[in-house]
Amino acid sequence: MSADIYGPCPCGSGKKFKFCCHAIADEMDRIVRLIDSNQPRVAVQQLEILETKRPNNAWVGTTRGMLLLDLNESAAARDVLKQVLESHPDNELAIVLYAAAMLHSEGPVQAKRAMHRAFQRSAKKLPGLVSDLATTLAAVHAQAGHMMAVREHLALALRLAPEQRRQDLFVQLLEIDGADEIAYPIRGSHHLPNIAASSDELQKEIRKGQKYAAVGCWSIAADVFLALAKASPEQPEYWHATGLCRAWDGDETAAAESLHRAAHFYLDLGIAVECETLAQILDAKLATDVIEECVYRGRVSSVSRLLTVLDGQPRVERIKVPEDGEPENRPVAGYVILDLDPKQTNFSQLTLDNVPKVLGKVVIHDADPKTNKPAFIMVAGLRGPNLENAKSTLASGTADLIEWDQDPTQPHVVGMISKESEILENHWYLPQKMPLVRRRELLNQFWHKVAIETWPQTPLKALQGKTPEQASKDSSLKVPLLAAVHILDASAQQRERGIGLTALFARLGIEPLPVLGISGETGLGSLSIMQLNRLPIEQLNDQQLVTVVNRSMLIRHDETLYKVLKLAIARPAIADQVDCVRILRTLAGIASANGQREEMFEWINRGRNLPAPEGKTAFQNAWAWDMTEFGARLEDPSDPQLKPLLNRFVTYYGPKVPQIRQHIEQTLLTFDIPSPWSAVEIITPDSIPSIGGGWNPSAPQTVPAAGKIWLPGQ
After folding, report:
1. Same domain assignment for residues 401 and 477
2. Are 381 and 247 members of one domain?
3. Are residues 241 and 96 in the same domain?
4. How confident is residue 499, by pLDDT bands cut at 50, 70 and 90?
5. What's the pLDDT at 111?
6. What is the pLDDT of residue 380?
7. Does 120 share its domain with 155?
8. pLDDT at residue 3, rounded to an integer
9. 328-363 pLDDT, tens per residue?
10. Which residue in 84, 140, 387, 510 could disulfide with 94, CB within 3.0 to 4.6 Å?
11. How far, CA to CA in Å, does 638 sit from each of 434, 438, 681, 687?
């Protein structure tokens, strides 16, 4: 074998190869060649034979265990590696492989002890394998929806990962921090609190908990901090540390309980509210007062006849089905069943009171002759009268075409939402061709009503059954109420709508959280998102502002992002450290989402006046911003400035970049707008705005990518 005979033995004993396992080098070499030639089964058989000759050899056992794991035979790998550890309890490779086998065969709860042992014993010598183990556990927590645990396990994996894997793990962390579907208070980093000890003995215990937490043994760390908390129940830092460690371990019930206690005892209002906010978010995931999301399913005897019947129903509207996924799994048609006939609805005069609402959603799948799977239909919605109404509407005229499951009165439960969050769902039907500006007007009216009328008068469990309006007059509920406000804000952000914290505080007559105290030396990269939202933006120095711009662009909390970007674009000193084009596009998008169209065009015009970014010509820069304006004008097809802009595409860009015609015409077709090339207005040279640097007909022209049109706010 080519291994250095005076190097460390592959078995992990710590001895030199020559004085340990050198006797089986040739046989192991043959087995390695079998593995390299993609013959793992034969290799396993040879290892079993070798084990009869060399029982309890760690090299043989760990190699066999690793192969069984690769073959997805985790239970067999577990048994093999358990035997290895009985003879070699300190073998780092066996320890980490056994933890992986336990995780795959028994699950995270039963594997926890083995995982902790691997984190403590194997991370130093085998950091890559332990990193993989932490990544796998992150994926397990992701399936369970434990997002704080997911992030912390990925952060642990990143610290241990080899260089070639670090970039991928870093991107995964960024994706979590920027994921709108995750409530923003639980995204980002959360750090153990600083805990002052009154004695050396206490300091020793605190350090023990911190050390366990640092290596990923969060349940052990939580036990240490919990013991301290029980001994000093009014010291909030112990409860805070316990709660965070429980959340990182995936025990969200216990985490919420400890964080509630921390919030109760903290004198610092900002920290108290953040702990309470985390606790209430975790509580909501465990709520029992829920509305079930249900599905009725049935067989279809004739898909073509069914589609014909449904297309003629007055309250049934066909919708576009998703095109993602495998073609054989895509539905052939999708419908929504409404409370109103859309054909009798004037969509140009909709209000919150007369907008059609979706009672249920329908998808129809054709038969699959390859698998003999029959055609079937699914009707989905929230359990209750609306879903039953949808099902009965669907059954009207289709009774001979659909054979429902054996018990049609008991739909399949596929999910649930808390009853408290039902007020945040609008369940509207708006036709695809309805102008985007009109959609946003309705959405902004809806969220304004939620924030100012509906939510303040809704009893909440976190407020002891009181409404926010009632709780605003009860000083004992100050912390829970402030947390509830931030959760409402987070819920709106998850639905891509800022609720307007400032307006909501004013509505309830309560003070917002105090501004975070900072100095010019304060590092801002590790602040939690709730702390980031409390920064005194105007007091930030240039480098701090750059840091906050980058984090805010990732997190995308609309109210904070708007303030930060407005300040950044007004500071020329940082122009070369931030992406000014992206900032102006984002500001335009926020203005558009808030219905502030004039401001949106102001930001677009400011972008148009910027110098061309490096690598782009003045022509390309003008084209990019004109396309941005094109998307913005299309939000309201009746915009009088759309026609002159289209004429500019015909007369100025068309001759230089002929390829744009097809792209522009296809886009306009979606909005039923005729092609400007079929009705060109006469435009004089004086009416064409000048482009900085001019256009040189002898210079090569680069056609800007026309695959996507930027629509503000999307």
Report:
1. no
2. no
3. no
4. confident
5. 94
6. 94
7. yes
8. 58
9. 678 899 999 999 888 888 888 888 988 999 999 999
10. 84
11. 12, 11, 18, 22
Cβ-based neighbours of 196, under 8 Å, separated by 6 or more: 237
- Which residue type sits at 493? Q
Tokens 């939580």 sit on residue: 222
Residue labelled with tokens 């239909």: 377
Which positions ≥6 away from 34 have C-beta within 8 Å? 40, 42, 43, 46
Is 197 a domain residue?
A: no
Distance CA 82, CA 111 (A): 13
State the DSSP H helix or E strand holding residue 101, giving kind and residue range, or none if neither.
Answer: helix 92-106
DSSP string, 102-127: HHHHH-HHHHHHHHHHHHHHTTTT-H
**351 Cβ neighbours under 8 A, 6+ residues apart:** none
The one-letter code for the residue type at 536 is: P
Q: Are residues 65 and 157 both part of a single domain?
A: yes
The answer on 117 and 35 residing in a single domain is yes
| DSSP conformation class of 439 | H
The DSSP code sequence of 629-666 is HHHHHHTSTT-TTHHHHHHHIIIIIHHH-TTHHHHHHH
**Cα 238 from chain centroid?**
30
- pLDDT for residue 433 is more than 90: no
- Taking residues 589-601, report their average pLDDT: 93
**Rounded CA separation 448/454 (Å):** 9
* Cα–Cα dist 65/465, whole Å: 55
Across the range 415-427, mean pLDDT stands at 90
The string of DSSP letters for 674-692 reads: PPGGGSPPP--GGGSPP-T
- Looking at residue 699, what is its pLDDT? 40
Shared domain check, 409 and 348: yes
